[in-house]
Amino acid sequence: MYNEKDEKYLDCINNVAHVGHCHPDVVEAGAKQMELLNTNSRFLHDNLVLYAQRLQATLPEKLSVCYFVNSGSEANDLALRLAWQYTGHKDIITLENAYHGHVSSLIDISPYKFQQMACAEPSQHVHVALSPDIYRGKYCEDHPDPATAYAENVKDIIEQAHKKGRKIAAFIAESLQSCGGQVIPPVGYFQKVAQHVRNAGGIFIADEVQVGFGRVGTHFWGFQIQGEDFVPDIVTMGKPIGNGHPMSCVITTREVAESFMSSGMEYFNTFGGNPVSCAIGLAVLDVIEKEDLQGNALHIGGYLTRLLYDLKKRHLLVGDVRGRGLFIGLDLVRNRDKRTPATAEAQDVIYRLKEQRILLSADGPHRNVLKFKPPMCFSREDAELVVEKIDQILTDLEKTLGLQMSEAVISENGHTKRKEPSDENGLVHPSIGSSHKNTGTLPHDKKTKKRLKT
Amino acid sequence: MYNEKDEKYLDCINNVAHVGHCHPDVVEAGAKQMELLNTNSRFLHDNLVLYAQRLQATLPEKLSVCYFVNSGSEANDLALRLAWQYTGHKDIITLENAYHGHVSSLIDISPYKFQQMACAEPSQHVHVALSPDIYRGKYCEDHPDPATAYAENVKDIIEQAHKKGRKIAAFIAESLQSCGGQVIPPVGYFQKVAQHVRNAGGIFIADEVQVGFGRVGTHFWGFQIQGEDFVPDIVTMGKPIGNGHPMSCVITTREVAESFMSSGMEYFNTFGGNPVSCAIGLAVLDVIEKEDLQGNALHIGGYLTRLLYDLKKRHLLVGDVRGRGLFIGLDLVRNRDKRTPATAEAQDVIYRLKEQRILLSADGPHRNVLKFKPPMCFSREDAELVVEKIDQILTDLEKTLGLQMSEAVISENGHTKRKEPSDENGLVHPSIGSSHKNTGTLPHDKKTKKRLKT
């Protein structure tokens, strides 16, 4: 990525430019179709059918009906409409810190957004479940079965709702929570939640807007990490789907689609599924396949995670490293025991990286989680460069804060040290260090925040 | 427009391909920018600023803040959010037969859609006002002041809402109603409505998604027909804005935007205002200007309206001709006195035109209004061709139905005949014939409907 002065930036955050900024194959496909025909006058175009078939082939067979729309927000809103119509119920269960889009129906189910408002109460039909976060959540990595425990919370919510005479239409969650702080739900959680929700007559919506299309490395879709025995009722897609072109998709089962159709209300979307969008979507799928970008996400993601894990060994500010493929979070803390979010420090890292022409962002409820979700062509060298720079910045910051590793290193090697788990994909699972008590505060918090606002 | 066999079609309905299908300038601008950069990582791009300035220049000065989004639906949903935040009120007044988009918040305010459902009741916060339709509405062209009468209906609704303790956030209307049946509100209506709504603490949203960008000929925006003394608080744009590229815009006043900002909730839209969309938007504005497409809409629209008016003189099936620029409705009736909608006949016209490779559609609550909203490069020859074909089809249909003009012609020349008004733009204002009592029914209604469903 280059700025207006032709200066090169390393982009570690752009999950929209999925197959790489301005990928020539995608540009060519788009330009070619723009020249030929770009319309939607309710007439069918072959691209639409071809593209629906290709997308469907990446998913379990049950998910077989595609609706093409223009943004992740349009996709999630349509998912809600499908759920409402299919179940005849109204209530939605969403997760703490969830973000599902910017249209009004989605602000309602996005605590990440509505909690920014003065009046932060959810709407009557919205229930907020615990985030299945085993680092900062209620049930952590030391819990014997966090998947079941978090799913039980959903069950409780359903029971409470039923007592009030309310009925559950759907549970919605990102397959891996993005804005919520790069949270990876424990395996098995979705299955258990789905069971509770379906028992209540509701359906399961997997939001893949940020994490889909091979990013998690081992699978094409994030929800597939949960295991082959899990199939959502609706999957929504967005950002990476068109490498920046405004398009998105909702895929659901025949049953849900037929119920929607039987409502008598036709669904029409002016731009959705236009020939140019479909041509671009097809080209993106081709590039992912041709360049084995899912494989790259697996290998480079694994490598990057290991490098970040090494950082954790050297820096007290690093509380947790978690991720799958090229979707990784680095949770910065001021105190490893208390896991105090190092918000200002995270902002400082971002700002200093930007000065060195590396784009990274911080997110999560405390804005302290460094968020890696780069274009999928990210390389070993890119990973090394960004980690090297973060290393230097953390060293500087820790010097300023008076944080010293020696103590922690001792502790890491001592009784509280936990093993560094890694699975067959070379990915490192969440793990935490411990013991150092220093809660450093950056002396220039305010100044940093101000600078970053611009 | 060409089909897959390279057969040429005349497109009379595509207000999305506004400056012409695949206009080379627009394609070039899009392709060029796609090659350079297409991202939105919360970084600014010059195109965004340039485009906002250009759009703003087409509007009254007061409307000065642009939000770029991806579809008319996203635009209208954001308009509602702006209204809710600015006024602190919740209720929305919408028009009969209105259509404002497909996301859930807009289905709520779109009787055109929610009336298709079994449960056709509007939501509690939605109030449906009379459509200001002087051909089929409560106050017709024989009313001394339909603008005031229809606005009084809005005033009554506000008073009723206040009695229930409800508060009005906004009145929303298309500047000219499109799906609702090509309804042209009487001049002065918007001013009076705005006064009532603003007195109640609400704001006025003008939906220009279908009719904006010079289509009405005399003005760049449809609401401007109402006079220079009328300025909406929010204008929403869509379809034609990118000649098929998924993009749209909301423009509002500084006061409304500042109130939204002060809510503490950041507005972010992944694709909205990306450099490619803005490049395309700029190219569309350039083409409209360079090729004087607004002037073309005025002149060819006027010519087409006159040709259609001539049809009315010869065909009993034509109840009304109404329009502005290249936004014209031909209201087909089985009985001119009763104004019985000729729904099946309209569908038959559409179907037969399609057989002759002319694309036209029928809309309105009775689906009997032939809807002209062609690309703005529509020519005299195009106008002549479509009218000639409709002429033949109507002759055929009337023969089948046993409708004869002679009687009507006598009546047209008799005491009930109304003058054919035309303004300085060569446009013909709504006018009706009278007296013929024959209510013909097509013997093959069902068959026609079935064929057209495919």
TrEMBL record, chains A, B:
Record has Lyase as a keyword: yes
Cofactor(s) in the UniProt record: pyridoxal 5'-phosphate
UniProt biased composition (Polar residues): 432-441
Catalyzed reactions: phosphoethanolamine + H2O = acetaldehyde + NH4(+) + phosphate
GO MF annotations, alphabetized: ethanolamine-phosphate phospho-lyase activity; pyridoxal phosphate binding; transaminase activity
Domain of life: Eukaryota
Lyase keyword on record: yes
TM ranges: none
GO cellular component, one term: mitochondrion
Stretches the record annotates as Disordered: 411-454
UniProt subcellular location: Mitochondrion
Keywords: Lyase, Mitochondrion, Pyridoxal phosphate
EC number: 4.2.3.2
Classification via InterPro entries: Aminotrans_3 (IPR005814), Aminotrans_3_PPA_site (IPR049704), PyrdxlP-dep_Trfase (IPR015424), PyrdxlP-dep_Trfase_major (IPR015421), PyrdxlP-dep_Trfase_small (IPR015422)
Assembly behavior: Homotetramer.
UniProt family annotation: Belongs to the class-III pyridoxal-phosphate-dependent aminotransferase family.
Function of the molecule: Catalyzes the pyridoxal-phosphate-dependent breakdown of phosphoethanolamine, converting it to ammonia, inorganic phosphate and acetaldehyde.
Listed name of the protein: Ethanolamine-phosphate phospho-lyase
Protein source organism: Sinocyclocheilus anshuiensis
Taxonomic lineage: Eukaryota, Metazoa, Chordata, Craniata, Vertebrata
